[in-house]
Amino acid sequence: MPQPSDLFHLTRHLPTPLLVIDQAQVCANIGQLRQALPAVELFYAVKCNAHPHVLAAVQQMEAGFEIASLSEAATVRRMGVAPERIICLHPIKAPEFLRYLHRHQIGVLAADSRAELDKLAAHAPHSRIVLRLNVANTGSVFPLSNKFGSAPEEALGLLSYARERGLQPHGLTIHVGSQCERAATWTEALHVCRQVWRDAHRAGFALKLLSLGGGLPAPYAPEGLTAAQVALTIRTALENFALPTGCALSIEPGRALVANAGTLIASVVGLAERQNGSWAYLDAGVYHGLFEACAAGGGLPFQLSTNQPGRPPMLYNLGGPTCDGFDMPFERRALPELRLGDRVAIHTAGAYSTELSSTFNGFPAPTVYGLEELQQ
Fold first, then answer.
1. Which of these, 64, 205, 221, 276, has the minimum number of CB atoms within 10 Å of its CB?
2. CA triplet 336, 340, 345: central angle to 5 degrees?
3. Is 26 helix (H, G, I), strand (E, B) or coil?
4. What pTM, to 2 d.p., does this model score?
5. 33-67: b (≥16 Cβ within 10 Å) or e
6. Which residues of the chain have pLDDT under 70?
7. Distance, CA of 119 to CA of 258 (rounded, Å)
8. What is the reported pLDDT for 338?
9. Which is it for the CA torsion 291, 293, 299, 300, positive or negative?
10. How many CB atoms lie within 10 A of CB 190?
C-alpha cells in the first residue's frame, strides 16, 4: 500500500467512509505465499473479501477459489473460473447449494458428520469428499473448533460411511482458526492429520488431497507473526508428513492475502470531552467496516494514522456514527489532536471489513475503490 499521506491525497475529494484496495498488494501476497509453499496449491477464501477488485487480482494470479455459499459460487462462475479451480470446504451446505455445485461439476466438497454425508449423497452424488478434522485452535483470535470438525477417532467410520453412500473419499482438511498467531498449532494439526491419513491408508482408502485450510495471520501489529514465518513451519511439518507420490496439497487463506491490501478511511464527525476521556466519532464504526476492531470482534490491533500528523498527541476513545453504545471500535488510542472533518486511516483493513459491514441506523457502508483507478 502507498504511504498514508498519498492515500489521503488520492481520496481527498471522495466521501467517506471508503475502503481502498491495492490489487498489486493482493498479487504480491499470493506470489510470496507461493514462493514459501511451492508444492501447495492456493485457493482464496472468497468470504474474506468478495469485492470484484480482489477477485480479479486472485484470478490474474491464476489461484483457485474456496467458496462457502451459492452466492459465492455463482459469483466465481460468472467470472469464468473453471470448476476444477473451485472447492467448497464449508462442512455445512444447504440442499439447494449442493444441487448447484453438482450441476456445475464443482465436486471437491467437505463434510464432518454423517448427516452431511447423507445430504451430499442425496443432492451431490459421487462427490469427492474431504473430511474436516477437528484440531486444536490454540493461538487463534477466532477459534472454529467448537463449531466444526469431526473427532480424529471418528474419521475412519465417516470415510467408510461416505463410500457406502456412493461418495468418493478424497482427502482431509483442517482449520486452525482464523488469525492463528502460534506457528506450532499447524505442526500439531498436521500431526493429527498424519495419524488419520496413515490409518486411512491401512484401511484401504487411497486419499488424494490434504488441505491445510485457512488461518494464516495478517500483519496487524508490526511485531506480529507473519504468514511467511508460518509457512516455514508448515514446510517442515509437511516434510515429516511424507505424503505419498501423486497426492495434492492445498491451502485456503483469506485475510493473509487481502488484509494489508486494504485501508479504510473515515472522517471525524463529532468530538466531545467526557468524564472517561476525549472522544472522537467517526463515520465508520463497528457496523460499518470495523467489527473486528471491537472486543467482541476479536479486538485486532489495527494501526491508525491521520491526515494531520503534525499536531500534538492526545488519547482518544473512537466511536462509530450510530446511536448504539456497542459501536466503539477503539479505546484510548494515541493520535494527533483531531478536529471536525479530519480523516483517519485504519490500516490492514482489507479482510472482513466491508464483508461484515451494513447500513445499520441508516449510515452507509464503506464504498470500495481500487488503488489503480484512483491513481489514473
1. 276
2. 55
3. helix
4. 0.96
5. bbebbeebbbbbbbbbbbbebbbebbbebebbbbb
6. none
7. 33
8. 98
9. positive
10. 23
